[in-house]
Amino acid sequence: MKQLDFYPEEWKEFLENIDFTDEERQIISLIRRGWYQEDIAAELNYVRRTIARRYTSITNKIVHYVLRSRK
User: Fold this and answer.
1) pTM for this one?
2) Which of the 8 DSSP states describes residue 8?
3) In the chain, where are the structural domains located?
């Protein structure tokens, strides 16, 4: 799956304005360090599919935020 690549300023804005869960914030921290889903799953003791679902949730929240902010 494609990595979520954003500038640090964009991540700061997202983290300040999007209601991520604590678990999503933990995953985002690892994503920002370049970790892959398989590695995140191993680190957090989840199956990869769980991380994939969280990844989708994070992506959807970012997309919705960006679309709302363009209006």
Assistant:
1) 0.90
2) H
3) 8-15+22-69
* Contact status, residue 4 vs residue 40, Cβ threshold 8 Å: no
- DSSP secondary structure string, 10-71? HHHHHHHHS---HHHHHHHHHHHTT--HHHHHHHHT--HHHHHHHHHHHHHHHHHHHHHHT-
Amino acid at 55: Y
Q: How far apart are CA 15 and CA 17, in angstroms?
A: 6
Question: What is the per-residue pLDDT across 20-59, written as a single tens digit (0 to 9) for each?
Answer: 999 999 999 999 999 999 999 999 999 999 999 999 999 9
